[in-house]
Write a structure and sequence with these properties.
- The chain has about 220 residues and is an all-alpha fold.
- Helices cover about 70% and strands about 0% of the residues.
- The protein contains 11 helices and no strands.
- About 20% of the residues are buried.
C-alpha cells in the first residue's frame, strides 16, 4: 500500500511529460514558455537594483525550477545517466542561484546557466512540425537561429557576471550584449573591452565558438 501513491504520482508525471496527448503537449509548451519567461526575468532584473521583492521572486522561480527538476528525476528511467547530463547540472546550478537569498549571494552568477535549459526543449520538435507548417518549412533556419540565440545569451551572461563588479564599461546586460555581438562578429569597435586575462580568454572563446556556430 505504501508504494501506491509514488507509483501513481510517477504515472501522472509521465503522462504530462511524455504522453502524446493534448494535455501533455500543452504542458510541455507551458514549460517552454516558463523557460523563456525565466530568461526574460534574468535580463530585465539586471537593470534593476536588488530589493527584497526581487529576492522573493527569485525564490519563487527557484522553487518552480526545483519542482520541475524533481519531477524529471522522478520519472527518469536512467537517473544516473540523466544526473550526469550537462543540462542537469545547469538546472542544479540554476536552482542554487535562484535560491541565493537563502544560501548566499555568492553563487548568484550561476543563474546564467538556466539558458542551457532551452536546449532540452528540442524534444518538442516533432510536435512543432505537426502544429506549424511554417516551422516545418523553416526548421533548419529556426534551429540555427535558436542555437545562435542561446550562445549569445549564454556568453552575454558570462561577460556580465564576470565583469560588472570590476569593469566600469559593463554595467548592465545591454553593455554585455553589445560587447558579445561586436566580439562575435569580429567588428571590435574597442569602446568596450575586457582588460583582464580572464576577459581576454572570454573574448577569444566568443570569437572561436561563434565562428564554429556560423560554419555549422
Amino acid at each position: 500500500m505504501k508504494w501506491k501513491l509514488p507509483v501513481r504520482l510517477v504515472q501522472q508525471l509521465r503522462y504530462l511529460y511524455e504522453s502524446n496527448t493534448t494535455l501533455g503537449y500543452r504542458f510541455r509548451y507551458a514549460l517552454l514558455a516558463f523557460d523563456i519567461l525565466t530568461i526574460l526575468f534574468i535580463v530585465v532584473t539586471s537593470f534593476m537594483p536588488r530589493t527584497s521583492l526581487l529576492e522573493t521572486v527569485d525564490v519563487v522561480f527557484g522553487l518552480a525550477i526545483l519542482t520541475d527538476f524533481s519531477a524529471r528525476m522522478m520519472i527518469s528511467r536512467a537517473r544516473w545517466r540523466e544526473f550526469l547530463h550537462p543540462t542537469t547540472w545547469a538546472d542544479v546550478a540554476s536552482i542554487i542561484s535562484f535560491l541565493a537569498p537563502v544560501v548566499g549571494e555568492g553563487v548568484g552568477f550561476l543563474r546564467i546557466l538556466r539558458t542551457l535549459r532551452l536546449l532540452r526543449t528540442y524534444h518538442l520538435l516533432s510536435q512543432l512540425r505537426a502544429d506549424s507548417r511554417f516551422f516545418k518549412r523553416n526548421e533548419d533556419v529556426i534551429f540555427a537561429v535558436a542555437n545562435l540565440a542561446v550562445f549569445i545569451f549564454l556568453m552575454t551572461g558570462i561577460v556580465y557576471e564576470t565583469q560588472h563588479y570590476g569593469n566600469p564599461q559593463i554595467t548592465n546586460y545591454a553593455d554585455a550584449l553589445y560587447f558579445t555581438v561586436t566580439a562575435l562578429t569580429t567588428t571590435g569597435f574597442g569602446d568596450i573591452t575586457l582588460p583582464s586575462t580572464l576577459g581576454r580568454l572570454i573574448s577569444v572563446a566568443i570569437m572561436i565558438f561563434g565562428v564554429t556556430l556560423f560554419f555549422n
